[in-house]
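Researcher: Sequence of Trafficking protein particle complex subunit 6B isoform X2 follows. Predict its structure.
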Amino acid sequence: MADEALFLLLHNEMVAGVYKSAEQGEVENGRCITKLENMGFRVGQGLIERFTKDTARFKDELDIMKFICKDFWTTVFKKQIDNLRTNHQGIYVLQDNKFRLLTQMSAGKQYLEHASKANFR
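Model: Prediction complete. Tokens:
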């Protein structure tokens, strides 16, 4: 439980620090979002490499998605994905109804201003 609290505090401080640098004019808003995305990508890639180093090679995309939804998500977030959807053309949508890194942000209206400015792809 203490590890989870420390992780959440670290995550919140990282996001706040990057946005604070944008507000102070050190970096423009689009670049701070890219910086956060890059940090998340590197951390996720490192975790996946560590978790899969002793497993057999995946046969197809479906095996990869099953691993992410069951094993990876359970290890990192202590719960399975709530829903996995696909269009059977290589597009997968993972749904977590209580994603703990966003639940605090979504509870307050003060984050709506930042969300509307974000350039989501």
